[in-house]
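1st attempt posting a full record on here, be nice pls
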Amino acid sequence: MTRIIAGYAGSLRLSVPRFGTRPTSDRVREAIFSALQARDVLEGARVLDLYAGSGALGLEAASRGAAHVTLVDRAAAASRVLHDNAARVRRAAPRDAQPEVVVSSRPVLSFLGAGGGTWDVVFLDPPYDLGAAELRHDLEALVAQLAPDAVVVVERSGRDRPPEWPGGLELERRRDYGETALFWLVPGPGDQPAAPSQSA
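the predicted structure (as tokens):
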């Protein structure tokens, strides 16, 4: 079972796609959001959840005060679940604190190439078998869309070699939880590659 941990939608159960999704455990999400709330970056934030699956990370952010959340997953089954889970979280929201929640079924790189504004918090939890080159391409496209004080949280298998980070992103810290490794990135020095141009 996957659920919202805290905020106005706390304890709300979320649906999970039957195949192709590896939900982030409650323990890891607790660690992520404890750290984000300690940084005071969620209230009113624009949040991007890439490879969203059930949307648990982005919707947790909405429950804790994010103003806008975009959930991106190209899988048709995930898209259906994301729409359903987003509607549940919106229904739980106070009337004066309705978050904007957008679901995109585009591939991640295509979504980033189209430009979606400036992001304060980004979750990037791709399948563990996503290649290092694909992950780097995603991050290169993301760099130009980050707010100056943005936080990017990347989840990978702790058994894999650490990714190579592109220019414009700096590794702040790594934390391991069992077989899960969390990498905390912030905008940093270096030549920041431009986001890919929009394709037809």
